[in-house]
Write a structure and sequence with these properties.
The protein is mainly α. It contains 9 helices and 7 strands, in the order αβββαβααβαααββαα. The chain has a 3-stranded parallel sheet with strand order 4-3-5, with no helix packed on it. It has a two-stranded antiparallel sheet with strand order 1-2. It starts with a helix and ends in an 8-residue tail after the last helix.
Length: about 180
């Protein structure tokens, strides 16, 4: 009995992690070492795939037995740190995107991080501050932490004055951010 317990707790997870048993949403088999995640929201999965994230096929993750095996192999629910890591490995600054595509991808990132803000740990927050994720009026990505990138956000009163914003847009100031 103790031998089978050792096998199931130690050997099996390390072996499972390497085996191509994880059925992905792309209908491929791969190992748990391939950074694949559980995630329930189909629309969000579709959007987040743009950033290189991969997901367990939703039909398979809904079976309790399969999910238990996948968890033993190391598959976990998607967390903000996973998206942040993916963006660190493949920054948006390296992507060949039109201005509109870049703005849309940033909206996806901001939306996901906002909806999951309570799950962002301190390390992830620091990583976010260092990443170029702020889009200037000239569609340049900058990080919040870089001193030369002092960003100026207009106050609430200025945001309510649409004519003032239209005038600022014409100037195309590179360090002004607004929605």
């Amino acid at each position: 009995f103790s031998k089978s317990l050792i096998v199931s707790k130690i050997i099996i997870p390390s072996v499972l992690k390497k085996l191509p048993i994880i059925y992905t949403e792309d209908c491929e088999l791969c190992s748990a070492e391939s950074n694949i995640y559980f995630h329930r929201d189909a629309a969000e999965r579709s959007e987040l795939r743009l950033f290189g994230l991969r997901f367990v096929h939703p039909d398979w993750s809904s079976y309790e037995e399969i999910r238990a095996v996948y968890e033993r192999a190391g598959i976990r629910d998607l967390a903000p740190r996973n998206l942040i890591q993916s963006l660190r490995e493949s920054p948006l600054t390296h992507a060949k995107l039109s201005n509109e595509e870049l703005a849309n991808q940033l909206k996806i990132v901001y939306g996901y991080l906002y909806r999951n803000r309570s799950s962002i740990d301190e390390v992830s927050k620091n990583n976010l501050l260092a990443m170029p994720l702020c889009l200037t009026q000239r569609y340049r990505l900058v990080s919040v932490q870089e001193e030369e990138n002092q960003l100026h956000l207009p106050g609430e009163e200025a945001l309510s004055k649409i004519n003032a914003l239209k005038s600022l847009d014409k100037l195309e100031l590179d360090h002004l951010i607004h929605s």
